[in-house]
Amino acid sequence: MSLSFDFVQPEPVATDRVTLFADVILPLPLPKLYTYRVPYELNDHVVIGGRVIVQFGAKKTLSCIVAAVHETPPKEYQAKYILEFIDDAPVVTQPQLKLFRWIADYYMCTLGEVINAALPAALKLSSESRIQLHPAFGVEENPYPLSEQEERIVETLRGGEEGKSLTFTEVGDLLGISSFHRVIKSLMQKEVIFLFEHLSDKYSPKVVKKVRLAHTFVAEAALEELFQRLATKPKQLDVLMRFLQKVPIYQNEHANHQGIEKAYLSSAPHLSASAVNTLIKNGILEQFDVIVSRFPLDHTAETRLNFTLSEAQSTAHADILRQFAEKDIVLLHGVTGAGKTEIYIDLIQQAMQGGGQVLYLLPEIALTAQIVTRLMRVFGSRLGVYHSKFSDNERVEVWNGVLSGRFQVVVGVRSAVFLPFDNLALVIVDEEHESSYKQYDPAPRYNAREVALMMANFQGAKTLLGSATPAVETYYQTRAGRYGLVELTKRYGEAGLPEIELVDTRKSREQKTMLNHFTPELMQEMERKLGAQEQVILFQNRRGYSPFINCLDCGWIPKCKSCAVSLSYHKHVHELRCHYCGYHERMPVECPACGSRNLKTVGFGTEKLEDDLKIMLPEAQVQRMDLDTTRAKNAYQQIISDFEQQKTNILVGTQMVTKGLDFANVSLVGIINADSIIHYPDFRAHERAYQMFVQVSGRAGRKGKKGKVIIQTGDPLQVIFDKVIRNDYLEFYEYEITQRREHGYPPFMRVIRLTVKHVDQLLAEQAAILLTQELVDRLGREAVLGPEAPYIFRIRNFYLQEITIKLSREHTVLKSAKNDIRDSINIVKDQKEFKQARIAADVDPM
Description:
This is Replication restart protein PriA. By secondary structure, the chain is an alpha/beta fold.
């Protein structure tokens, strides 16, 4: 007997099979990119700028951005496979990746930190721990007894469908306890359960339920028969009639196919939702879902502007275009109320007509709220709005709208620089001097103005910077010939610059004529303006009711438990609050130190001013605009709308009221405590004070009315007031630039501030001393200042030490110095005793 075998010819070995690797940006503060292997069958699906899911570490599973694709495996470790591809098209564009790399390099942070800040949260996948029965559990007898709580978890997991899992939250609810992690840990040790990460994409589009008439009843005869059927059912008949009034099915059958929102049918008082649902249940109406925009921006845009530029505006407009032919960056220096916004709108329209994209940056959400209405009337549904008060889903919608080309122009605050533009023609940075453009914490600690300039440079776009009080560094660039300069020296229309009056608060206190915190001059002027049906803005650069409370018997002052500051009193909620970490506690009835009830508030904030005004001017409607009153999503819009419609007579606020708001009926501005702004330990203190005084003064006297500004100060002879009164920016600039040159500050030097943080004060000081020594060895003693504790030396339980580094502006010097700084930081962090120290670099601190 012989055996025979069928010989099978082996498949030829493919010689062109390529193994791809992807460098990904993990949303973690890692100094390098991490490399993963692309599954061969997905080689054609990997896209640079797309999101993928990877495993990082033993258990962590997260999404990241593909930065590069190549064929070189990593030498230091075995590359893991990418687990899943989320996108088949980039959500981050190539121009964005180039910009993100520049941000990471310039601001001394990691690409992961940039991605974390740039991407809306809903584009980043959330990872939630879940538990599931171990596959081996129950096959063999478990040698470990289970507690009652453990048994309950196992029964729940067994009782569901195969593969049932529970989130940590569900475990807590099941056991009725908050401390359930020890139970989970015990079950894991007994190999009863295992943990895994459940990834879910948080973004979901907005869905609206709509209804239409079933096709069966569209014919006239069928509809008449339907009316007869519903003759005894008046509620359903009323709903049907309301539908037909809205949808002319005989004139336009397509209108029925599009349908109307279900909510519309039950919105009238005499109609019921149950009648609508009955019609759907009986097949008379059909319900369907439609994905809609979250933005009420789908209005038909006007084909041309609804205003005419004045002669001065037209001249400035032409001058900007002329200078754009020679320079990429132009500064529009116009006095407050000069009409810069109209020039911006005209330039935006021209850029859009050429097919380009436009980014219009504003420093505050309050400004965004006021100007969006004006822009919508011009640009309609082509306009996108982007700021932090939007929900995650709303921000994703704008992000996708820029990617798809739906939004050709975007108005937004500093985070809008991260949007996926790839065809920018024009960038406008309004109020370019504002410190609100600077991100302080966490990293990246970027300045949106500088990022916008670089983004425009990368994409070949023009940048227009606008301000009545330009940053000293910006104006210096115009003097050096690097930026163009266009000036608007007159207000729009017939309005003149306001009259500014200094009032000496020391004299008023000596004469005992102060009315709470108001001088008699300011009170009289407020009463006169209110009598003339005109409006008032009061500026106080401190929120809350009072900065602190004090026991008059023993001197006790309540302090924050985590920060080296006193707690501020907020009367509205009857709480003491820390403005640095958010800690709060109830206002004490008696002194905890000595038991005295003799507690007194000291100083005043916006809340105190609002309270006093309501008592002193009971006929006036007073509103407050600060961080406390604008936390809600639409609070800005409501406060501004009420003031525009003159429902509010007096608006009391912090810096929010100083920034470009335009109210036609405001004829008086009061600056309550000017001295607190001037006397601040910072080289920019005088610049900030000048800018703030001029900007808030500019809110007075619009639309042909002569405004008035009253500045309350204990030192009227301060040199800065003379420059504010004469509106002499050039003289202020010459004085300030001389001081900067003499003492070696920007724009003549670059400044980098390093902050060392540690929960132990001594270790914070020792780490800072070691870091300073390392820096001095590399950069020289003259370049390194410090270390020293800042004025607020403890925040959120961390003790702080600061080191200031001054460097030449030359690119090669700066690049080399940053490498030296990184090396010095690494040396300190490598020391065992300083492992827990945090060291943050702030390039170009404000």
